[in-house]
Design brief:
Rossmann fold; globular; alpha/beta; about 30% helix; seven-stranded mixed sheet; about 270 residues
Amino acid sequence: MNNSVNVIKDSWNQWAETWYQKYRTDEAITKIITSPESAFHRMTYSMIQGALPDMKGKRVLVPSSGDNHAVFAFHLMGAKVTSCDISEKQIENAYAIAKNNGWDIEFIRDDTMQLSKINSNEYDFVYTSNGVHVWINDLNSMYNNIQRVLKQNGTYIMFDIHPFMRPFGITARETITVEKPYDLVGPFGEVPTYKWRMQDILNAIMSSNLTVRRIEEMYAEDGSFWVDDSTDEGEGLSEKDIENYCNWHLNPLAAIPQWLSINATHG
């Protein structure tokens, strides 16, 4: 494991025990139990339903599983789910929730760029959720291994921040301020992150011999997208203030798509 990956792993082990706890509250988990589809953007969920209308008994892998909300949702839909994450603490915390609820989910600490503990041709479906690509320094390795672990005719679906958002950040403002050129992809920061372009993601998917079947560019479901949930940025804002963030007349950044989903298949 190279040094930058170690820095990322150590950082996530720390964040898992601090600001990330909000994703493990009883309220957050109860919402998923009550409505598993709530773990997904509506358009992404529609893509998942189109690809796998019946999850029962399907082998599903979620690399870089993070808050594990998608993992829990897939399990509740009847899938046999494997959760992978580079952070031991994220895996430990998700395992504790699964154990407390009696959920039979496999948890593995593994690097999404390697998936060295995952057998080839094993999974019907691989899903990566919001916030995965920004931590990946080698997209080709990630997608080659996703292709490797999928069964023939298996499906991959991703959901993440749209690359068009990256030059501007995601903070709502009255005027657009460019923070970086679109072509400048990183690494950025002491804990290295990458701001990949559409071409970087799509070329990596296609070079792995996955076949792109569908692309959807979506808008935020509500104005909370524009509030940084790792800070107290939303304090003092009314519901109307937050709702107005989706109005491009008031928030110009709302005029470009905020989310991206891609559906690709192996074979």
